[in-house]
Protein 1
Amino acid sequence: SQKIEQNSEALNIQEGKTATLTCNYTNYSPAYLQWYRQDPGRGPVFLLLIRENEKEKRKERLKVTFDTTLKQSLFHITASQPADSATYLCALPYGGSQGNLIFGKGTKLSVKP
Amino acid sequence: EAGVVQSPRYKIIEKKQPVAFWCNPISGHNTLYWYLQNLGQGPELLIRYENEEAVDDSQLPKDRFSAERLKGVDSTLKIQPAELGDSAVYLCASSLGSATDTQYFGPGTRLTVL
């Protein structure tokens, strides 16, 4: 079965630096991969989707890469701000139904001023 | 436009009691999901509906959990009887329907079973 590993439970960085979060999967390469943000007491919020034929996707200060050879996605936040502090989850489809997502445990990012 | 609405936001019950959670998805969203999220973990899918049909309930513990989505809009998730291990956040999400459509999550219901 598909497994997802996110590199660390917590990541602490200084404001203005680039945060890099890692998502590794162990089995088949999915057709796409998604990243979500979750704040305490709230549900996850969709950020970006990257497809298997896309190497990179950008949205404002966010950048996602997808390497099907390494079975890895990297999520970057440039010029990080304290407001970026949250838990970031990667998710990918599994099973016969492409509509179902399996989520990683998430990485809790803390950006210090 | 209103997002996904869930109620209640918090629920505390004693073990062996029944409990129900309600979800109102975004208008026009055909697909509805119920997830369970334990502390420090990602959401885990319990059941997925396409309109009023449960198309994937393979992860739903059917001995005590049940769900329904009458008329293909609102949905209710029930646990009867609740066990201590059911303490978690229950999230509802909805999407337009195709595989890559964004899932929009509600705030969740935090259940504590004493």
Protein 2
Amino acid sequence: GAVVSQHPSRVICKSGTSVKIECRSLDFQATTMFWYRQFPKKSLMLMATSNEGSKATYEQGVEKDKFLINHASLTLSTLTVTSAHPEDSSFYICSARDYRAPNEQFFGPGTRLTVL
Amino acid sequence: DQQVKQNSPSLSVQEGRISILNCDYTNSMFDYFLWYKKYPAEGPTFLISISSIKDKNEDGRFTVFLNKSAKHLSLHIVPSQPGDSAVYFCAATPEGSGGSNYKLTFGKGTLLTVNP
């Protein structure tokens, strides 16, 4: 099956610093990757859709300058949380579409971000 | 406006019995539906999906039923096992063909507990 990895799995940082989270499709090429955020006891909230080689499409209410997304290759997308604040603490999950199963998304294991 | 609703935040069943997880949607443009299973601090795992042209899809112990007129779908797990204990998310998309506007809208999830 399609495998998606995320790194790091957990990160703790100080307020004001930037944190980069990587999302990789390990055994397939992902033309589209998605970034989600999950709050405790809440649903997955789509933050942005990332297409390889083009700018990410952000959902309403998501600050593009705060959450920088780069999809430089068919197997890698990165999310950078800039000038992190405690309210950015959350569980961030990426997913990827495999062209062989275009109706499905395969999710990474998630990254727990804690901003002190 | 929540377009995908899972009105039961939790469900508890006995091992060996049937688990029925429900999901309602409001957007009539949705034409492809998916169920994901999620353990704490992990990314969601795809379980089963159904296209709007069908009313039932079965995969082993998992069966998804779709009632388009009622905008309702359900996931049946028979027989339920303790390892099935997790949060189950219902998701929907209006781009069943995996087109450029494809993205998933998730419900808030239902925590299933299967008691031995």
